[in-house]
Amino acid sequence: MTRITITKSSDKEYLYHNVTMAPHQLVIASRLEDTGSDDDIVDPYLFDPSYTLAAATGKFDCQLLPNSEDWATRNNLGFSVWEGAVTLLSFLHSSDTPEAIEFRRRVLEAREKVLELGSGTGVGGIGVAALGGDVLMTDVESVCDITRNNVRRNQQSGANHGGSCSSRGSSTVDSHNWSNTVSIGLGTASVQTLDWSIPVSEQQKPHDPTSSSIIIAAEVAWLEELVPCFVQTLSDLLRPSPSQRAGTEKVCYWAYKERGTEASKIFTTMSHVMRIFHDLGCEVKEIWREPSREDPGKHVIVNIVRFLENSP
Ligand SMILES: C[S@@+](CC[C@H](N)C(=O)[O-])C[C@H]1O[C@@H](n2cnc3c(N)ncnc32)[C@H](O)[C@@H]1O
Questions:
Q1: Domain total for the chain?
Q2: What is the mean pLDDT of residues 122-126?
Q3: Binding site membership of 54 for ligand 1 (Cβ less than 6 Å)
């Protein structure tokens, strides 16, 4: 597997992650926080109902150590392009495992549309779009603006399809594709709110997320408090749905990075997440594991998740 590479640059406001995924070059920006300053930076979404610490991690950058638990308790801080997303995108792009080959067959050849959960700054969804996927990227409302801005940053010039259906830059309308998309590389991306604390059945407009059979998610189950609602949402999305393309199997490619220990109060553990998946009728199979480049002794794991047919 060839790992995508990232170099960083910045201006006063943003940190830019310059992503090389040959032959594609992407830019993922996140707002810079001056953590050394005494001046409080007020996030315009601070009083938004969907604002949580968990959501703030989707869009800000700082220089604190990810292993230290107290960093997560500080308001507005987090890492904007997470290691699990880089591993997941590298895996989907170039791994020769059967599961990665099947992902590319379904997404790039059969052109099944992709749903991303907890997109954050969006390297996963934007990267899959560049490869040729039709991706609906989702997050809480307070994060979707930065996701949208990054989608626009990577838009092919002259290829904005806002307001009309698009299919890889052609005028063909395929009912299996998301609408109102922006062309990125060989594919398209669109952004919509999908909050795990709200039932999926109440969040089906304009796009119906249950119509996708391929879901991707990176670093979405790391805070203990987030796990139950994330797992519930994913298991609901993985259940067979009348709107999914006929003959397709619903699966989620989910990247998890080890962060917590059994003693952690903030970070969850893989065994805890697995228990909740199991209780909700899902099977989780590990398909890739590699040592973390950021945290010695920890691993980044890619799993495939399915809803078991005989589950209630
Ligand atoms: C650790 S970040 C990972 C972001 C991105 N997937 C990546 O790996 O770079 C977790 C993401 O989950 C999102 N999130 C947190 N709570 C959520 C909720 N209730 N519903 C939907 N997304 C949520 C956050 O906004 C954030 O973007």
A1: 1
A2: 97
A3: yes
